[in-house]
Design a protein that fits this description.
5-stranded parallel β-sheet, about 900 residues
């Protein structure tokens, strides 16, 4: 992949032409974006990949459907009105583009050439960037040319870039021979060696008022003026024909002929423009010498002439070009125009239904500007905002919503505007601003919509760590509950009420409510098939922490998000599943899953999910003793949390730092951090025993000789854990009691705790209890029983790669007289997170193609990584890979 960047005329197109001529034995995919086509949904993408479409059947079904819909090869997935979270994921088309490019490259190497990338329609640009970023091992060479200083898909993409400069004076003299040395030197200085400027200005160089030596000039303006001077020398008929051609975005001669007939223009006059070097006439199409020639001629024409040309072209276009007709009608409008507005609204709807959200935004917005009906304008601006949000244009969406709210007087439209505004705020921060907007709007909404809005508001409270307000929202949800609620409303109400009660109220009743909602989802294919509920499906098992409680929903949610190419939904789902894995014995896959969530959250601009992933990964690094990685992730997470108001992530990041210090042996620092975590919990009103660091604080206080404080902390925690009544906190509470019990009574506490740990999947917590138990047995001089517990603890810590804790267990064993050698680092630890994800999916039964589709990579990239996996593990087959993973924490993670 190489980006060619430079000013107009610097030679980007010539380099692409040179590349194409020398791409011997390669299949060429070429597209040149045109500024006037920037509102045609996926126009440039279709031009680029058209030769490859013969292989559509070779890509995964959901991706094929997404691409066919995007390119209007099948009907789009229509819907009546905007609903936050509705619509196909905008990244699905990018994933499909990648798969198609990879399939095409399977026949022969491919050269992809994209010129004038700054003029790509937004939807094509997003799809292509998503695909280009993921090309690793495929025989695909990508060259993208873009103007320097103009927005394009290259912005922020961190792609290899070659910036083109001008020719040297000697090279310039070779390009334009015959000039007097002084004139040549002046021309070179004035154009900075720009090849097109040298060619276009050479003939008039002696007469030009060239800039003084060393003074920079705007080369594009000089070139444009040079083109205009040529046009000015032509007769009126030729100039009219050129303006009409410049107004067209396709250069299609049959269409131009029909439009010219309407205007009384003789299109044969274009021959004079060709003789002047402004256009080239190809069979069936007219092409301008350079985009600057086209834009200069169009801009120079009187506004009335341009509008007449647009109107004539709109009438002349064939029926299939309805989107182009709509934009030409809009350009022809003087003031408001209902006909053009309706045409653009229809174009926006078609674009939205094809997942071309970037172009749909522009169409809906322009349609709103053209109508005289205030309510219709408000609805169109709302649709523009909705499409803009799905396209990733957050700031634009917010501005459009504010404008729509000012225009409308319709209460239903106002509720929809506030719903989207709150939805965006809840995801971009401050999250409690989203809560306030959503709860206020829910009071004016119909019951079904109100339940959905209040569920979002409650989730914002959860992320903000505000259980008091979350409980209030849950109560309101029950009060607006429809008399005969849908299954969806029952599920959302049950989950919201249960989660709120667990983190800040009656934990036992909350656990039962979550259990009931989980059972509803397990029994309902409709709930499990609702893409907007995927995140909610993963929350239930996380709150319960029980073996078998909703575990199938976790795998289903991830499988559904991957199979439906729901990239935008994946960060939330992946974060929750990673947190679940981190609370089991599957730490390697937890780290890989967190990393995937973080990468996708960054790419899709989801700041709240980025903070969540960073905090979770920091916690995992802490337990593994990876100090530098933990501190970096925690620092990034805390910075985001303070900006977003996500107190819950702040609590997790603080806990991670406390765990790190405890593992590293700085008990006083660890206690300080856990006390800060406890303070944050108290300030927030969070009473969920699972979030309390009381077990860690009790351990730290005992080590610091602060026994009275340890007893008070443990006693309070025993009460809180008992209120929740779930095995995980009860086992931790019993460990605290065992640490503090007298020498003749500690064993029953630890034995009960171990029994409860066996009802959960958290191997680390079980090992912590066995370590504490073994240490107490050793101090009680019961070395035989102590060794059994300490060996079991060491086995788990070593398997998890929890280095600091494994060291502690070995030290305790050494104190009993038993020496245990440090375990060699598993070769699995050498795999990158992405390599581990690939290994897991392949050994779970997925084919290379299925794995590629799940991870939004190409099959060749999967094979490339698989070769590295084999080399690192010293194996040669997938069967050996399965054996390597079997018995490891990664191997027990399943294949979701």
């Amino acid at each position: 992949m190489l980006a060619l960047v430079g000013e107009p005329g610097i030679g980007k197109t010539a380099l692409l032409r040179y590349t194409a001529e020398r791409a011997t034995g390669m299949q060429l995919l070429r597209a040149r974006a045109i500024e006037s086509e920037a509102q045609i949904p996926f126009g440039s993408l279709l031009e680029l990949i058209r030769p490859a479409l013969i292989l559509l059947d070779k890509i995964a079904g959901p991706q094929k459907a997404a691409l066919e819909s995007a390119l209007a090869l099948r009907p789009g997935a229509g819907r009546d009105r905007f609903r936050p979270g509705a619509g196909r994921d905008r990244f699905a088309v990018g994933a499909a583009t990648l798969s198609l490019l990879a399939a095409y490259a399977g026949r022969a190497p491919v050269a992809v050439l994209v010129d004038d990338a700054q003029s790509l329609d937004g939807s094509s640009a997003q799809a292509l960037l998503f695909a280009f970023r993921r090309l690793v091992a495929d025989p695909i060479a990508v060259f993208v040319a873009a103007r320097d200083g103009e927005p394009s898909l290259l912005d922020g993409a961190d792609l290899p870039t070659l910036r083109l400069g001008g020719l040297t004076s000697d090279e310039a003299a070779m390009l334009v021979p015959g000039l007097a040395p002084e004139t040549a030197r002046q021309l070179h200085g004035a154009t900075a060696g720009n090849p097109l400027a040298l060619l276009e200005l050479a003939a008039d160089a002696p007469d030009l008022a060239l800039a003084p030596e060393g003074v920079p000039v705007l080369v594009s303006a000089r070139i444009s003026r040079a083109f205009l001077r040529r046009a000015d020398r032509l007769d009126e008929a030729a100039r009219q024909a050129l303006v009409l051609s410049a107004t067209s975005d396709t250069g299609d001669l049959p269409t131009l002929e029909r439009a010219a007939a309407r205007l009384g223009i003789d299109l044969a006059a274009l021959a004079a423009g060709e003789n002047a070097g402004l256009v080239t006439l190809h069979p069936g199409v007219v092409e301008f010498r350079h985009p600057l020639a086209r834009s200069a001629i169009y801009a120079e024409a009187p506004a009335s002439q341009r509008r007449d040309a647009h109107r004539a072209l709109a009438a002349a276009l064939p029926d299939r070009d309805i989107d182009r007709r709509a934009w030409h009608l809009a350009a022809a409008a003087l003031g408001t125009d209902e006909t053009a507005s309706v045409a653009l609204e229809q174009a926006g709807t078609r674009g939205r239904d094809r997942s071309a959200y970037a172009t749909a935004t522009a169409a809906f917005e322009r349609a709103g500007r053209l109508t005289t009906d205030a309510e219709r304008r408000a609805r169109l601006l709302l649709e523009a905002a909705g499409a803009g949000w799905l396209a990733g244009f957050t700031d634009r969406a917010i501005a459009l919503l504010d404008e729509a709210r000012d225009v409308t007087g319709d209460p239903v439209t106002t509720v929809e505007i506030d719903h989207l505004t709150g939805h965006i705020a809840a995801r971009c921060g401050p999250v409690m601003s989203g809560h306030a907007i959503l709860t206020a709007a829910a009071a004016r909404a119909d019951p079904e919509r109100a339940v959905a809005m209040l569920a979002e508001a409650a989730l914002a409270c959860f992320q903000a760590g505000n259980p008091v307000e979350m409980l209030s929202v849950a109560d309101r949800m029950l009060s607006v509950h429809p008399a005969r609620p849908t299954l969806r409303a029952r599920f959302l109400a049950g989950m919201t009420t249960g989660m709120a009660s667990i983190i800040g109220g009656d934990a036992a009743a909350g656990a039962e409510a979550v259990n009931e909602s989980v059972r509803l989802a397990e029994r309902s294919a409709d709930l499990r098939g609702d893409l907007e509920l995927i995140g909610w499906l993963t929350l239930g098992p996380l709150f319960l922490r029980q073996t078998g409680a909703g575990r199938s929903l976790l795998e289903h949610a991830l499988r559904a998000a991957r199979s439906r190419a729901a990239v935008g939904a994946l960060p939330f789902v992946l974060n929750l599943i990673a947190r679940d894995h981190a609370a089991t014995d599957r730490w390697a896959i937890a780290a890989a899953t967190y990393q995937e969530a973080i990468d996708l959250a960054r790419e899709s601009g989801q700041q709240t999910e980025l903070a969540f992933g960073l905090a979770g990964l920091a916690f995992l690094h802490a337990r593994r003793g990876r100090e530098q990685e933990c501190r970096a992730s925690a620092a990034d997470a805390l910075s985001l949390c303070r900006a977003l108001g996500t107190r819950l992530c702040e609590i997790w990041a603080t806990a991670a730092l406390g765990e790190l210090e405890l593992g590293l042996g700085d008990t006083a620092k660890a206690a300080e951090l856990f006390e800060h975590q406890q303070q944050l919990l108290r300030e927030s009103g969070i009473t969920d025993a699972d979030l309390w660091p009381a077990a860690e604080l009790t351990d730290a206080y005992i080590r610091l000789g602060m026994d009275d404080l340890a007893r008070r902390t443990a006693a309070e925690y025993v009460e809180v854990a008992g209120a929740k009544g779930q095995p995980w906190p009860l086992a931790r509470a019993l460990r605290c009691q065992g640490l503090l019990a007298a020498e003749d009574s500690f064993a029953p506490y630890f034995e009960q705790a171990i029994a409860l740990h066996e009802q959960t999947l958290d191997a680390f917590e079980g090992a912590r209890t066995r370590l504490a138990y073994g240490a107490r047995l050793r101090r009680a001089r019961n070395r035989v029983l102590a060794r059994a517990q300490l060996r079991a603890a060491a086995d788990v810590f070593e398997r998890l790669d929890a280095g600091p804790w494994a060291d502690r267990a070995r030290a305790e064993l050494a104190a009993t007289g038993e020496t245990r050698r440090r375990r060699d680092v598993s070769t699995l630890d050498e795999l990158t997170p992405q390599e581990l994800q690939i290994a897991l999916l392949l050994t779970a039964g997925r084919t290379t193609r299925q794995t590629a589709a799940a991870l939004f990579l190409s099959p060749k990239t999967i094979e490339y990584h698989l070769r590295h996996i084999y080399q690192k593990l010293g194996i040669h087959s997938r069967r050996e890979l399965a054996r390597k993973l079997a018995g490891s924490d990664a191997g027990r993670s399943g294949g979701s």
